[in-house]
Structure formats: C-alpha cells, structure tokens
Amino acid sequence: MKKPLIILVCCFAVMLSNAQEPAILKVSLLQTLKASVKDFTTDHLGNMYLLTATNQVKKVNERGDSIAVYNDVRRYGKVYSIDATNPLKILVYYKDFSTIIILDRLLNIRGMVNLRQQNILQATAITTSYDNNIWVFDELENKLKKIDDTGRVLTESSDFRQIFDSVPTPNAMYDRDGQLYLYDPSKGLLVFDYYGGRKNNYQLLHLTDLQVIDKNTITGRDSAYIFLYKPTSLQLSSFKAFADQGVFRKINFNGSLLYCLTNNDQLQIFKVVK
Prior knowledge:
Blueprint: H1 2-18, E1 23-24, E2 27-33, E3 37-42, E4 48-52, E5 57-60, E6 66-70, E7 81-86, E8 89-94, E9 99-103, E10 109-114, E11 123-128, E12 134-138, E13 143-147, E14 153-156, E15 172-176, E16 179-184, E17 188-192, E18 198-202, E19 208-214, E20 217-221, E21 226-230, E22 235-240, E23 248-254, E24 257-262, E25 267-272
Parallel strand pairs: 1-22
Antiparallel strand pairs: 2-25, 3-4, 4-5, 5-6, 7-8, 8-9, 9-10, 11-12, 12-13, 13-14, 15-16, 16-17, 17-18, 19-20, 20-21, 21-22, 23-24, 24-25
C-alpha cells in the first residue's frame, strides 16, 4: 500500500509546482436575493434551489422569480443537502432521519426513500447517478451503493476498509462524465468507476465548496482564494475574487456565474468578467 501513496504525493508535488501566483478574477454583481437563505444549490438550467431559515426549499429562476416551493418542513427534521444534478428529479436529503425525498421540477413529492429500511443507517453523501438512480455512501458498512427510487440496492462497491488504509468519509459526491467522485477534505478527491472500482485520488485537501464541474474542471476554495484544478494537465490555479472572501459562507460556480451565500443569509450572484 505504500507505493501508490508515494505516487500520489509525487503527483501532488507536480500540481503545486505548476500552481501560479494568484490571479485576479474579475466579477460583477448581477443581483442579490435578500431572502433568508441558509443553503442553496443550482442546476445546469440556471435555476436556484434555496433552503430557507424555516426549512423550506424554494425554486427560483435566473431572474430571481419564484417558481415553486416545497414546504413539508416538519416531518423529517432539518434538511441536510439538496441535489439538483437532474432538474427533473430533485433530491432532498434528511440525514437525521435517513430519508430522501424525491421532488419533480415543480417541487411536488414524487417519491420517498427510507434508507433505514434498506439497512443503510448512516449515509454521509448522496447524489443522482448517470442513469437516474441514486448514489449513496454508507458510512456504517463503508460501501458505495447505488439504489433505485424505492431504495432497492442495485449495486455496491467492496468494503472500503479493504481498499484504504484510512477509510474516507465523503461529504460530497458527483457523477460526471463516466466517473464518480467522492470528496473527503482530509483525504482528497477520490475517483471511482461505476462499479465502485478505485481509479484515482487527487490530493485536493481541506478545500471548502469543492465542485466537480466535469472531468477536467474542479473548483474549490479556502478562506482567501478560489482554486481551479485541471486533472489532465495537473494544473492548479488560484484566483483572488474578493477583498474579503470570509464574508461568504458558501461559493459555487455555474457556468460564468458565481453564487455566493453571505454570512447574513443573502445570496449574491456575480458574473465572471473576462
């Protein structure tokens, strides 16, 4: 197990050697949504999904107009994450109740998955799969599992304790371009095939808001800079976009737009200026 680790460390050294001095990322503020936003995500159509202080999920278009609201807020407790990989199938995950609510494009309930009924008692991350099923990382069994909309397990990986010296606990997953990405800030970005086979490990450590846009575009940030990593060229670039990036609790990219959630619960949308 030591040789792959040496290879990974060497690859990371190459990444660092290719990293340049931070460039200035010019951005222009387009609009501010002053609703009390606690979390958010976006889809590839430019729609925003806002989690409010009252645990509602609101769908808003690119102009800021409200489209739909999901407000069944009391049954399953606090929303842990929202996945809008497929804008026709929104996943709302209630981690404390091990429950996934499946919504349609107008945020009407079209299904519910009780993970506990499938003996998945501790899922740390979920996402929509390429074939419109659901990926789940089962921390208790240390396995990556794909389930259908009823919760039936379609496929699962080997026990991660047999693969890793130190088992990862991913807090985010992305299904992109024929690969599945799991991010553990303390262990990096792990890459798997669709059968749960391990393919790579990018040592992108301790980043916040890491996103896999596609197989050659990975973004993330720390308290001061925004990072862009290109896996095919091992190029790691850093950017300075704001005088004080600490005023934002969450930053996400979507195309040429930068979505920034402020510490006072407002969502600001910026356009990247070339």
